[in-house]
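Re: that backbone. Tokens:
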């Protein structure tokens, strides 16, 4: 599948899978220590006493890993990505454990031309983080603004 660079390149219904992110215990502990210091993110022993059954990544860390894979998959050089005004329906569906390997499945749900800016539009996606067992661990719907193809 061709990597979309500009608004016109996105096709509603298109699905793309990419990424290969290996989750380490050290990274889980580092992220949790800085940003989400809950016991089940900081200690395997403490986490065993919870419904997770073992040390797991913060949901925010999981989102960050998915975002890294999204950025790494962007086409090199010029592209029309203009950022995002936000996302909808963030759901953490399964815990992410040390040793898991994640990838991204991105589906184009819709796209709309801007009413106020004829040179751009918004693309509505569903992004899923999927582990090595094909289980969806996180799902969210970003809205991404894209420029249209340059004229000329």
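Recovered sequence:
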């Amino acid at each position: 599948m061709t990597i979309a660079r500009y608004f016109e390149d996105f096709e509603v219904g298109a699905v793309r899978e990419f990424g290969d992110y290996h989750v380490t215990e050290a990274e889980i502990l580092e992220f949790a220590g800085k940003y989400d210091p809950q016991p089940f993110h900081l200690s395997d022993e403490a986490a065993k006493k919870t419904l997770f059954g073992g040390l797991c990544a913060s949901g925010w860390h999981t989102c960050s890993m998915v975002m890294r894979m999204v950025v790494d998959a962007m086409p090199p050089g010029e592209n029309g990505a203009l950022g995002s005004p936000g996302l909808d329906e963030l759901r953490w569906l399964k815990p992410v454990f040390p040793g898991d390997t994640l990838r991204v499945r991105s589906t184009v749900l819709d796209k709309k031309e801007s009413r106020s800016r004829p040179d751009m539009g918004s693309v509505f996606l569903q992004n899923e983080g999927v582990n090595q067992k094909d289980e969806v661990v996180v799902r969210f719907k970003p809205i991404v603004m894209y420029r249209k193809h340059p004229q000329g």
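The beta strands are 15-22, 81-92, 101-113, 120-130, 136-147. The chain has a mean pLDDT of 93.
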